[in-house]
Amino acid sequence: MNAEPRPEEHYLRYTRKQQMDRSVHELEGVLRGIAADGRVSPGEVRSLGVWVEALGNLRNRAPFVDIADQVERVIADGAVDAEELADLLWALEKWTTPNVFFDAITADIQRLHGMVAGILADGHVNDDELAALADWLDERDHLRTTWPYDEISAVLTHVRKDRAITDDARELVKIFLADLVPTDEHRVLSIESIDLSLLTVRGICAVDPVINLKGKKVCFTGRSEKSGRGELSQIVAEHGGLPVNRITRDLGYLVLGAEGNACWAFACYGRKIEKAMHLRRHDGSKLLIVHEVDFWDALVT
């Protein structure tokens, strides 16, 4: 007698197309991450094999039976060249079709996750990869306010503001990316040797944010260089906003005072920032973390 399907199997039957599109988008991102610096390492080759293994029951379903076969043929010799990567990317474009489950934002966020995983696959982050990732983000302005677009964009802008990127800065970016988009090989990374002062409080704020206070809840954290908390609340109200003291999912903006703690990262930052990051990451909140300088600029434009 056949066993009754588990409850989750009934659910997965209706989300299979969703799973398939997500896997294709992530593979596309992985391939672009691998190709970012024009070199392919053994670790990056292994990441393609890991993607095939992660397909599970989808492995023998169209179109994955063809995609997986092509990926396995490419990595069979333990190496992947530029032509093979280009062929895989071309094939994925043919397999990917518009559908009711995903809009452009969802699809591109999945590609972003895959791209970061591809960049991290060899355990190193180099300048060419950072440049390729920054260019990819610049071309997708529609992802603003969506996790983790703003966070990655802010960190890349910060570490690339000087022409020469230091080894410590590259290592910091690697740890930051692995924390945002964890993979099986990068779930726990040591930060003992990293100089966290390299990433100031400005490094987590949205880059060139669009700020419109009307009808939005606004919360402040840290010390302002210009005004006290009471005056700031009054200014927000005068511009149609609602000043609040708590971080909630429907918050519009968390404004960081210019005198905030520079060592924000890895549980060293403030409670409100930690809560805001959690809401953006886990609850889909669109709240923006903005620097006080951008806040004042928005009031005079």
Pick out its properties.
301 residues; mainly alpha; Rossmann fold; 2 domains
Query: What is the averaged pLDDT score?
Result: 78
Derived structural class: mainly alpha
Number of strands: 4
- Low-pLDDT stretches: 1-15, 184-194, 261-269
> What does the main sheet amount to?
4 strands, parallel
Main β-sheet, spatial strand arrangement: 2-1-3-4
Count of individual domains: 2
Strand content: under 5%
> What letter string, H or E per element, gives the SSE order?
HHHHHHHHEHEEHEH
Distance between the termini: 72 Å
In short:
By secondary structure, this protein is mainly alpha-helical.
Structure in words:
This protein is mainly α and 301 residues long. It folds into two domains: 7-199, no CATH class; 202-299, Rossmann fold (3-Layer(aba) Sandwich). Helices cover 50% and strands 5% of the residues. The chain has eleven helices and four strands. It has helices at residues 7-35, 42-54, 64-75, 82-95, 104-120, 127-138, 149-159, 167-180, 229-238, 271-282, 292-299, and strands at 217-221, 242-243, 253-256, 288-291. It has a four-stranded parallel beta sheet with strand order 2-1-3-4, with helices on both faces. Helix 10 (271-282) links the parallel strand 3 and strand 4 (288-291). Helix 1 (7-35) packs antiparallel against helix 4, helix 3 (64-75) runs antiparallel to helix 4 (82-95) and helix 6 packs across helix 7. 36% of the residues are buried. The model is unreliable at 1-15, 184-194 and 261-269 (pLDDT under 50).
